[in-house]
Amino acid sequence: MELLQEINAAVDGLSTSEMLRFLLEKQFPGEVVVTASLKAPSIVTLKLISEIEPSTPVIFCQPMPEFSESRNYRSEILERLGLTNSTVKTKSDPMASRGAHEFREFLWNERRGGGGSRENIHLHDVLSPYKCWIKAAYHDLRETSARVQIGHYAGKVIVDPLYNGLSESVSELMKIHGLPYHPKIRRLKKRLPPPDGPVTGFQFG
User: Fold this and answer.
1) pTM of the predicted structure, to 2 decimals
2) Is residue 187 in some structural domain?
3) For position 157, which CATH number holds?
């Protein structure tokens, strides 16, 4: 596709932040939506976006049931980053429906006491007004390896902002910007022994 080739050429060699700025300000102003979770890679991505355009629509894809610590943590992140346009979608949301084309986020729903299950949220209706989808929920990091950084599907440009990684690790950026982890992750990190090698952030995010 010609548009995709032009975008890839324009962002070649740019940092993650520079690429996001190009998409938000030059290529798709007012036509970008972000899907996110409460995991560290999502929080870092939202930090980068908040520095460029804090009114960018953000859709938090949330497994059910949603615990109060998740609601409180999301409110804390939104306040810290100054993001002003966010919604929450679950698989039971009436707007989370299938459409002619499949747009969805896969979730891992962890249960209290251990175990869990995979869920998915259909996003056809909520994504329909936008031309560019920054797909940054990162619920299932195994899917990241199957993506490309910038692709095209059913008329939308779909972006994985962390596909090529970052100059710093996610955990380093969380620390640099003073961003807190989800309470569950903070408890987990206290119990884990020191890592043998560098911590990328994806281990905890």
Assistant:
1) 0.82
2) no
3) 3.40.50.620
Residue 202 falls inside a structural domain = no
Q: Which residues constitute the domain of residue 149?
A: 2-180
Has residue 23 been placed in a domain? Answer: yes
For residue 167, what pLDDT band results from cuts at 50, 70 and 90? low
Residue 160 is classified by DSSP as: -
**What is the model's pLDDT at position 191?**
42
Residue 75 is classified by DSSP as H
Q: Which two tokens stand for residue 86?
A: 């966010």
Centroid of chain to Cα 153? 18
3-class DSSP state of 22: helix
Kind and range of the H or E run holding 72: helix 68-81
| Three-state DSSP state, 188 | helix
**Phi, psi of 186, deg, nearest 5:** -60, -40
Report the number of distinct structural domains present in the chain. 1
